[in-house]
Amino acid sequence: MDRRWISNPDRLSAEYENGVGEFVTFVRGSLDVQGLTKCPCNRCINREVHHIDSVRYHLLIYGFLKDYIHWTEHGEQSNPQVPMGSPIQDTPPCMNDQDAEMAEALRDAAGHAYDIGSSSDLLSDMRPPPEQARYDKLFEELHNPLYDDCMKFSALTFIVKLMNGKVLYKWSDRSFVALLKLLHEALPVGNHCPRTYYETRKLLCDVGLGYEHIDVCKHDCTLFYKEHKDDDVCPICGVSRYVRKKIPHKRLRYFPITPRLKRLYSSKHTARAMRWHKDQRLEEDGKLRHPADGEAWKKFDSLYPEFAGDPRSVRMGLASDGFNPFSHMSTSYSMWPVILIPYNLPPWLTMHRSNYLLSLLIPGPKSPGKDFDVFLRPLIDELKVLWDGVQSFDSYQHASFTLRASVIWTVSDFPAFAYLYGWSTQGKLACPICLEDTRYKSIRSKISYIGHRSFLEMSHSWRNSKEFDGRSERRAPPRNFSTADILSQLEAVGQSILGKATTTAKRKRLPTELNWTKKSILFELPYWSTLLVTIWM
Questions:
Q1: What is the DSSP letter of 454?
Q2: What 3 state SS string does 116-161 have?
């Protein structure tokens, strides 16, 4: 009997699934009275016994022991006739350790087949045919040797290593194309080395998660998104969407976060790490080792116990800042990435850049300013969906679940804070903590922020001293504004005028609006107004 399927790294293939069915059928004749047998998966390695249905599930998830060709532990004769073409004689020559790791990564990306019980058939993740075809092509490249009789590289691993070298050593596109041509000519005839950079990127794009292009009005008035997707002119300022021939003035890069959050749970290793804050974090009063030890996290859990009840629910922080992507700092250009940081992970993984989720790349050449909300629109829409939950699969617990996520605070400097929240950090009332109680003093054309002695005890000797600004300090500290106070102030804020068009008249701020320029789009999130650090982060 042909057992070549045992060495097939693609456990989603029909060949492997049929082979597992063949093994299960064979073993049913040698089960004990309880229906138990040894499990030959890569995790149990014939040392543990399970019910036959669990054994089938293990084999589909963890794979079959590659050297277990003769099923002697399950009643087969010690020396059966194994025909040519079995895994011993016909293992693909290019399948080595690095190819096995690549196959495991592709299986994580492709999703898992899983069983929901002894009475059910094998279920897949119901991936659409075009998407499944992408992974079939990648597995095909993984099984193809770079050239005939190549023992070290498959076509896919060779391409991945080349691209890794390009990124690490900053090879230019032209030098990379020249190297590809040279390698293609130097390798034996019929090799699978790509000839162009386009072919390389086309193959590797199937591994990644991709992003969306969203055109932006020239003056940042609006996105050509959803109901305005097919518009040719801006609905606010009337400026044409294009420079010429369908070339937009600006283009926002949007990286959806839902598939990447699902990807965190598609690998059993990261799926386990995403539960660290609940299962492995050491709780000790007075010690702040992780955001979960903070008051903001604990209050959020108390307000939303259903969300907090599942340790897989993702809590994230939103960070943004501008930078100049060009090496010439004299060039005036400001690009703003928006990054989400999942805090479920342990601290040493949370702050590792590989776990940062880039969600938006806001184009320049100028900073978005008060129009930041325009660019946040697709992210906010997705966060609303994630608050309600989406279906996902947990590879650590081998079960489907409802994945929920929330943003519980932001991380930014002072200018970015003003763009995100709408409280201007310039002028007399610049402090976002003291708000309308900010103490200031005009010094010629500058503003100085004074009154720090008001935080001292009323009996402190420095309060009576006139050596600071020529007067004693008898005022109480500024008030601690509650979320209700902030929402009340925001109700007085008028409608913000979007865009930077020169024809757009600026709205004069009323005295009752204090330093508020807008009500942030973040308040559209159902939970945002209840967060402990909504405004003072």
A1: G
A2: CCCCCCCECCCCCHHHHHHHHHHHHHHHCECCCCCCCCEHHHHHHH
How many residues in the chain? 537
For residue 492, the number of C-alpha atoms closer than 13 Å in the C-beta half-sphere is 12
Q: Is 118 helix (H, G, I), strand (E, B) or coil?
A: coil
What whole-number distance in Å separates Cα of residue 167 and Cα of residue 353?
Answer: 16
Q: How far apart are CA 249 and CA 221, in angstroms?
A: 12
* pLDDT, mean of residues 235-261: 90
Q: Identity (one letter) of the amino acid at 237? A: C
Taking the C-alpha atoms of 434, 436, 439 and 445 in order, what is their torsion angle to the nearest 10 degrees?
Answer: 120
Cα distance between residue 440 and residue 91, in whole Å: 77
> What is the C-alpha to C-alpha distance for residues 521 and 501, in angstroms, rounded to an integer?
21
In contact, 316 and 343? CB cutoff 8 Å: yes
For the chain, how big is the Rg over CA atoms in Å? 30
Instruction: Tell me which residue has tokens 């969600």.
Output: 359
DSSP code for 521: G
d(CA 448, CA 441): 5
Cα separation values, 481 from 210, 440, 443, 484, 497, Å: 42, 19, 28, 8, 27
Considering only CA atoms, which of 189, 193, 157 is closest in space to residue 177? 193
Rounded Cα distance, 272 and 112, in Å: 16
Tell me the helices (H) and strands (E) count for the chain, helix number first: 18, 14
Tens digit of each residue's pLDDT (9 = 90 or more) over 210-244: 789 999 999 999 999 999 998 999 998 889 999 98
What DSSP state is assigned to residue 154? B
The DSSP secondary-structure symbol of 393 reads: E
> Which tokens in the block code for residue 497?
């005028």
Shortest CA distance to 373 belongs to which of 252, 261, 255?
252
Q: How far apart are CA 501 and CA 237, in angstroms?
A: 7
Q: What is the pLDDT of residues 314-356, one digit of tens each?
A: 999 999 999 888 766 667 888 999 999 999 999 989 988 888 9
Yes or no: say if 220 and 260 are a contact pair by the CB < 8 Å rule: no
Q: Contact 357/257 with Cβ under 8 angstroms?
A: yes
In eight-state DSSP terms, residue 41 is: B
Q: What are the strands, taking DSSP E only, across 404-461?
A: 405-411, 440-443, 446-449
323 vs 331: CA distance, rounded Å: 12
Looking at the DSSP bridge assignments, the partners of residue 409 are: 317
Residue bearing tokens 């002119």: 233
Distance CA 351, CA 362 (A): 22
Distance CA 368, CA 342 (A): 25
